[in-house]
Amino acid sequence: MSELDRLDEALREPRLVTLTGVGGVGKSRLALQAADRVRAAGGRTVAWADLWPLPDDRLLTATVADALDFSDHTAIDPVEALGRWLRDREHLLVLDSCEHVTHGCRDLVDRLLRASPGLTVLATSREPLGLTGERVVEVEPLPAETDAVRLLRDRAAALGAGLDAPADLLAAGRLCRWLQGIPLAVELVAGNLAEQSIEEVERALLSRLDIAADRGAGPPRHRAVRTTVGWSHELCTPTERLLWARLSVFRGPVDAGTVRAVCGGGPLTPPVLADALRGLERRSVLSVRGGRHRMLDTVREYGRMWLDELGESPELSERHARYFLEQARRADAGWLGPDQTHWYRWTEDAHPDLCAAVDHWLATRSGAAVELTGLLGFFWSCCGHLPEAASYLEEALTLPGAPGPARVRALWALGVAHVLRGDIRSASDLAEACRREAEQEGDADGRLRAAYLAGLIHLLTGRPMAAGHTADAGLARAAGAVTPGAMMCRLVRVFALTGQGFLDRAREEAESLRADCVAIGEWWTRAYTDYQLALVSLFQDRPRQAVAYARSMLDGKRRIGDGFGLALGLDVLAAALAAEGSAGPAAEAYAAGETLWGSVGHPQRGTPELGPVRVHYESTVRSVLGDEEYESVMLRSMVREPEEVLAELLGSAGRE
């Protein structure tokens, strides 16, 4: 029975299986293959959580929730909320690289397994988690005489260094035996065959392995990995070694532009850095996927050690944090324009390193910490990182100093996070604090943001008239300004008019706001304006228009990655489809919406006028289809991925 077959069998009964073994032995590779088999078999959803970017277990629960597509919008304990959501679901959760957060993983996995009978966890770690019922599977290296040699030949061939001669094959076999068949060691060796013959590689590496063995530097497999990594490091050019060390500052995959900005300087001029980057890729020190560079844990640990030896760790951490702060400023400046969706995607891709930058500023400079968390808070709240946003903002705002517009922004962002988590009382206090400090600072857009936050609270608590007055008062002082705060206040006014039943005025205001959003290429405000136009169209018996606007709203929210907005949009699309007479698609939309509402941790929400719309049209769909067919459509739709259902419901409509 193959190693993969044994793991496949192990995953059928135990609810916790941990793959152990030395770094570089292939634990992640085997877990990925097992996950692919489970996914292909169907019946269980597979979620993969990369834990290697985490410096500690502070963001462990949030990282696992992200992997499970759970965007926690609750104010309860995050692990409890996640457990509730998983309770009736069948999931395989893969936790990759647990060894540096073993204690946190042990507690998290224990609580999730107790709360979620349908959950199975597959962990990879250099040591077991130590939980009752855990099945530990030690991952063996590749067979040295067969699979390891095949891997070496394949990697060498990719570099144009064929190993076909009998003498080459014999040398490859000897090398793979010395390397204990460990895939990482084999790949690092292969990475140097473009510049050296296999005989030269063998002589150089075996002499080092002999020395390591004489010194008793741990078990043979550990020696093979450490020695090969060290030997690969020595074979690098000085600039490649310097870049290797500097790259260890990153927590997540990064593109070449980010590498240049953070790791350049000194001897690493742009052309030299580009050559060094290509050299590290060729030597298998770096892997590249989708134009983004990543180091394996073992290789990154070695680089971090050398960064410390060079005395550059403090400087590189500072440079890294400065770069991501500057990028966050650019993201904020680009929010109200055609680059908005790009910056939403960027904040998602750069999430591990943005967290690293926040951690750095929290420990070193309170002003920068407040500024960065304030700039990121709204992006994160929209895209499913509410717990991190709230936690970081709360910590930053407790630091001394940091007055001014940066603090106003942070107060506002925390207030928005509390609204989305349903904590209206705290949000109200923050809205008032934001308004007061914006007045003191003369921060015009801060005043508008505070008005938006207060107006949003009024809307959600059923006071549309108060929301309208608050937005109007804020806009009256803005003198026609086109700022994010002004656009948000205009949006509140549209919601308020709809909530009061002034539908013609609401449509007129919404169409004007939408036209302005289209003109500047902005999507967040436009999507919620489309949502209001869909509701108004429903109330005015214009179902075809309602469907078009609802689809456009969903298209915008999908571009941004706003799960809460998608859930709202699916509700209104379902109602519009029902009004149009498309009962089957309406039921599918309701089912996908229920799945998304579950993924944010609470029942359906929205402004009060949406509730009766849901009840009326869901009842209409059920009566048209009949109870049995309605439940059948709902069940079929709910077991599918919401994104798949959403793509079908949208088709090519609603796009401009």
TrEMBL record:
The source's superkingdom equals Bacteria
Task: Tell me the Gene3D superfamilies matching this sequence.
Answer: P-loop containing nucleotide triphosphate hydrolases, Tetratricopeptide repeat domain
Q: Which residues form a coiled coil?
A: none
Report the PANTHER family cross-referenced here: HTH-TYPE TRANSCRIPTIONAL REGULATOR RV0890C-RELATED, REGULATOR-RELATED
- By what name is this protein known? Regulator
